[in-house]
What does this fold into?
Amino acid sequence: MEENSKPSFYITTPIYYVNDVPHIGHAYTTIIADAIGRFKKLAGYDVFFLTGTDEHGQKVEKAAVEKGMTPIQLADKVVIRFKKLWEALNISFDYFIRTTQSFHEQGVQKIFQKLKDKGDIYKGIYEGWYCVSDETFLSEDVRLENGGHKICPDCGKKANVVSEECYFFKLSAYQEHLIAFYQKNPTFVRPQSRMNEVVSFVRQGLKDLSITRTTVKWGISLPDDPAHTIYVWFDALHNYLTGTGYDRDMKLFEKYWPATIHLIGKDILRHHAVLWPAFLMAAGFPLPKTVYAHGWWLKDKTKISKSKGNVLDPHIILRSFGPDPLRYFLLREIPIGLDGNFSHEGFIHRVNSDLSNDLGNLVQRVLTMTTKYFDGKIVDIGAEEAEDTHLRNGYESLKKRVYRYYDKYSLNRALEDIWTFINSVNRYLADNEPWKLAKDKTQKKRLGRVLYQSSCALHVTAYLLYPVMPESAEKIWRYLGEDRSPGGESFSSIEFDGLKSGQKALQPEPLFPRINLKDFLEEEEKTQVVPAEEEKMEFIAFDDFKKMDFRVGEILKAEKVEGTQKLIKMEVSIGTENRTMVAGIAEEYAPDELEGKKIVVIVNLQPAVIRGIESQGMLLAADVDGKAVIPFFVEDVPAGAKVR
Ligand SMILES: [Zn+2]
It folds into this structure.
């Protein structure tokens, strides 16, 4: 198909607050968007996927002051947290917008001016209860506490009365327009229950909205009234226009706007379903097709957030599992609109049962038998019998259902159906017992048919999984000797017997190694890290330093700790005695390159038990982006010599 004849599909995540610590909640929204975007590409759409960061506002300003930085220096530093996470999660966004980019600021100023000229923005005085922490005026219906003050319902902190000159947006003038729009577009907000919530909110009446501040300096100022800074929501929402080229590349903008789907968390529904369409109506832009509000991941029944201190760092899971198990778990566990409860137990259970047992083992068995019985060649021989046809037909109807589910954003249903198919392939193998056929020379053709049929089933299964698990899908195709990538093939072209006869398969590495929950939790505890930018230098007294006994240690023996990725167990001589030590350095050093090396060891540290081994000391190593670099002595120094 010609590039420009494809229908366009524009999907967004919210722009994340740059001062936040990225957690499972951010990852969830972005993974949903990525899976939908990847599916739409397979389905023949010209997809534009936008994500980014919201970088203005009082919290960034305050945090920067505390760290002795300018706000932009802080933003430049912490935006990396999000970019790194998206890389680790294999997120294929087309553009990453930062609201501090000058084209965004200019675009917002231009739209502001347009609305002001039109009379939809006017100057007035606003007085209200204001939460500094959330940078928001409390809604009028928050009740007064005993003592005559108000408490912010979002963060529980005390609010102040703030009165200031500001610009207002005439939101009240759009109440009827909005209601008419919702009536004409009943699927504008999804799921349906959220649409009802929005309609009844708007019916209660809309007040004009203050959209500038004089108290906040870090933001987009008004060119002709520079004491005023544009309020964060008016600033942030317009990223959906500027991010796809508004005012900078109008051709690109017109190609993709209006957005097909804004994916959001349900906590920012009103901003997206009330304010945003009103701003767009006022400025004369077409309105987005759908605002889809997903649920929250809860930890111990509480929403995950920085202020609650229960942030789940996805990096810990990603280091042990790679991106696909987390992508799979978050999309499989709950439908997009509902809340889910996140636990490591639940996660590991799913990974072990669905990914390791059902899928990983299947790939392993089929390809091992292909290697053993057909020298790795996938051969299309033997007649197709009824049960073989059953598998083929099963795929034909599965493909249609999965397409429909992905298309309706019912990602969990698509995955459920794919797993039913995977289990039918497992049953097919159990029923046909190829390992027994292999013992009978007269059954060679039948054996070939059974393995061919199973390989074809894996080939199409991997394809259907690609939107959710792109890395694993690509691996399975490679193992099957496929030189194409599933991401480059259109949905309509994937037939059941897409494998060429004679194609050479590879002996695969285990796709999803089983992980023991206890081991994972131990590893997690050890790797809980504070983000580097939040570390504070703390001084210790010289007397404290003197207490630490550093010695030269000689590594006598080193070996990997079985069942771990990172741990090495060493026998280290510290002159007077030998010590057993365990260190997380196996990814950087091979055991035999360590033997005979001399290192710095702290010898009077309380022993720690790691994987059941008592580690009686700790070696010193530099931490370079999470990789250990050990300083070795070049000179010939005796083991046990003091280091100070
Ligand atoms: Zn608050």
Q: What stands out?
A: The chain is about 40% helix and 20% strand.
